[in-house]
Amino acid sequence: MCFHNSMSKRIRQLARRYGRKTDLVEMVNQIVEEEYHINAFNYPVYPIITRDKEIQPFYWGLIPHWVRTEEQAKEIRNMTLNARAESIFQKRSFSRPVLIKRCLIPSTGYFEWRHEGKQKIPYYIFLKDEEVFSMAGLYDIWVDEKTNSSIMTFTQITTDANPLTGYIHNTKKRMPAIISREEEEKWLSSDLGKEEIQSLLTPYDADKMAAYVVDRSFLAKNPHDPSIVEKAE
């Protein structure tokens, strides 16, 4: 699935791109910023875009509002890093957020592996004409009853792969659901119905995307190292 992202822009660049303010994220330490590799399994604090005027600092790995204990919250997060577009209206974790808590996840590219025999070949995948593009996401806010603190979390929506990403992700054939720049504010709108939401979660046009092989060592590098997204020799 889609657990390895890249977001190599500064927060103020994202603010200009999305027409948002940065007051909230600038108060958060260790916010993802200029990172060439972000691993969802580390549950990073990530800048997401909602209907709010501010860029929002949320943790990757959605904790549904109905979770009761910290133990249950920790257990469920590994299962909610991604949300399949085909089942979000049926899954209890996503059925409410998909109607009222949709977000955009800024990205400069993402990583996926092609399997050839026993080899796993990593690719960097991006949009040809968009330095920053938007992946579709959902968010929720969970309140820890022990501490009465609110934890804000999100998940990334995936859909069927297009021909390019299907060639790369040739086992499960999935890709992030990418929202075109023209439809970003529509995705965030509060008055979308089920059919309109589903119509936005289709495979992105492969002709507008590109990819190349990167070095297998990128997983071990400092996430701020630009060489992570360089073409492999």
Which keywords apply here?
233 residues, 6 helices, alpha+beta, eight-stranded mixed beta sheet
Rg to the nearest angstrom? 17 Å
State the separation between the terminal residues, measured CA to CA.
26 Å
User: Total number of β-strand segments?
Assistant: 13
Biggest sheet record: 8 strands, mixed
Question: How many helices?
Answer: 6
Measured as a percent range, the helix fraction is 10-25%
Mean pLDDT: 94
Task: Give the SSE order as H and E letters.
Answer: EHEEEHEHEEEEEHEEHHE
Structural class category: alpha+beta
Write structural notes for this entry.
The chain is an alpha+beta fold. 16% of the residues lie in helices and 33% in strands. The chain has six helices and 13 strands. The protein has helices at residues 11-18, 70-77, 97-100, 163-168, 184-188, 194-199, and strands at 4-7, 35-39, 45-48, 56-60, 82-84, 102-107, 109-116, 119-127, 133-144, 149-160, 174-176, 178-179, 209-213. The strands form two sheets. Strands 3, 4, 5, 6, 9, 10, 11 and 12 form an eight-stranded mixed sheet that branches. The model has no long low-confidence stretch (mean pLDDT 94).
